[in-house]
Amino acid sequence: MRIGICPGSFDPVTNGHIDIFERGSKLVDKLIVAVFSNPTKQPVFTMAEREEMLRETTKHIPNIEVASAEGLLNEYAMSHGATIIIRGLRALSDFEYEFQRALLMKQIEPAIETVFIMANTKYSYVSSTGIRELACFGGKLDGMVPDYVEQRLKTKFKDKYKV
Ligand code: ADP
């Protein structure tokens, strides 16, 4: 069985991520979406909340499994039988970071292949960071995140969305 893994912080999941899951899931038998905490970013949602939003918004993808993960990605992937890391690539600015990460991963775990899927042009400007910034100022979010996530953001920043 070919198992892929989409690691990320997903704080929160966006339509850009979901587009990558839909396309990535067709390349593997099982796709694990693994929520990692990112020590360099101040989170808006807890790991449990991010996991729950992912579960809710990926129900339509049959071969997906959502999980919270910790520790090293290579160890997590290998212990779950995943040998393909699937990442989305938006702009040139993503490239440098992803290129370094993919090479580092190859160095520490040669059995794992990192595969990139080019962002859908519709979502190439969407990032979780941008969404968090918009939401904390009460900005419009339609079309960028699933409705479920939009509601969760509006609840989280409810003082900003009062009319
Ligand atoms: P990280 O904190 O590791 O960057 P993210 O949750 O921000 O994790 O992103 C996880 C993956 O999804 C990364 O490969 C990222 O490039 C990709 N991604 C994020 N936003 C988009 C988007 N709008 N379109 C395509 N891929 C995206």
TrEMBL record:
Which one GO biological process term can you cite for this protein?
coenzyme A biosynthetic process
- Transferase is among the record's keywords: yes
Listed A to Z, the keywords are:
ATP-binding, Coenzyme A biosynthesis, Cytoplasm, Magnesium, Nucleotide-binding, Nucleotidyltransferase, Transferase
Give the matching CDD domains: PPAT (cd02163)
Q: InterPro entries recorded for this chain?
A: Cyt_trans-like, PPAT, Rossmann-like_a/b/a_fold
Enzyme Commission (EC) number: 2.7.7.3
Q: Which residues form the Cytidyltransferase-like domain?
A: 5-133
Broad class of the protein's primary localization: cytoplasm
Q: In which pathway does it act?
A: Cofactor biosynthesis; coenzyme A biosynthesis; CoA from (R)-pantothenate: step 4/5
Binding-site residues, ATP: 9-10, 17, 88-90, 98, 123-129
Q: Where does substrate bind?
A: 9, 41, 73, 87
Site, Transition state stabilizer: residue positions: 17
Q: Where in the cell is it found?
A: Cytoplasm
The protein's required cofactors: Mg(2+)
- List GO molecular-function terms, semicolon-separated: ATP binding; pantetheine-phosphate adenylyltransferase activity
The reaction(s) annotated as catalysed by this protein in its Swiss-Prot or TrEMBL entry are: (R)-4'-phosphopantetheine + ATP + H(+) = 3'-dephospho-CoA + diphosphate
Which is a Gene Ontology cellular component entry for this protein?
Answer: cytoplasm
Keyword Membrane applies: no
Q: Which domain of life is it from?
A: Bacteria
How the protein assembles, per its UniProt entry?
Answer: Homohexamer.
Write out the similarity annotation.
Belongs to the bacterial CoaD family.
Record function comment:
Reversibly transfers an adenylyl group from ATP to 4'-phosphopantetheine, yielding dephospho-CoA (dPCoA) and pyrophosphate.
Protein name as it appears in the record = Phosphopantetheine adenylyltransferase
